[in-house]
């Protein structure tokens, strides 16, 4: 399985523009413009682009594609954009580890980043190629998450094809368009097929029909408060009744202390908070030591004060901890 090297296939012109550093003055001026900038994992037609359009319509926001998820975090931390949209987890293939790694912030690069919202996209993958000949396909390009979501189709129909991981599904479509030989295919969206002029060889090739990806909206806490998202903006289904709130917390524990993880989790139980997910990533401090992520129901600044109380208790028993944000639930 090959992975994209740095600089492989130059990004589109708009992505190149978005990667140019802005001076602090330019950054401050950008946020006062009629169309504040929002970063997202590009290029155009990526599922992250589709998620971004749900919440940030182009008539009100300047959408800036980035080449990688880490680039989006850099844009937000450096205040080159007002907000960013990144994939967080898929319902059938789990967490997006690059996003978790950036939230873990092991080297202190993203100390000002906070999560302020979520967006859901129903994902329907297609097999795209430059020629409508299924038998010619020797290589498949896509994001690792897409490969994981389409295992059955690949094993049944393209068992001998080489797998090439790239930064996004729309990036895969762009590569196949440039290749143009018909021997390469992309797992991407129907929208990408339209934008990049590719044939759709197969539709809905994901393993599950209920395939959904959740995206996080991130912001820099040093930026001045902006107009909050309306329910209709972040919930295009039109349900104006919020479904509750969520918070995301990360922490580390002393791994040589018996019951250390249980002590932290017990803080949530003591405060009557429901944990909806728990993940971990290597801390890189020592082998087999971890940064834990817990998502829970409730807002840090909720009137009942339970989340804030739990955070206070965690600070007393964890090795380190960080509140990563609270937001309204959308599904």
Automatic annotation (TrEMBL):
Ranges of biased composition (kind: Polar residues): 223-238
GO molecular function, one term: prephenate dehydratase activity
Alphabetical GO biological process terms: L-phenylalanine biosynthetic process
Tagged with keyword Amino-acid biosynthesis: yes
Protein EC: 4.2.1.51
PROSITE patterns, sorted: ACT, PREPHENATE_DEHYDR_1, PREPHENATE_DEHYDR_3
Region span, Disordered: 1-22, 223-245
Catalytic activity: prephenate + H(+) = 3-phenylpyruvate + CO2 + H2O
Enzyme class: lyase
Protein known as: prephenate dehydratase
Species for this entry: Hirsutella rhossiliensis
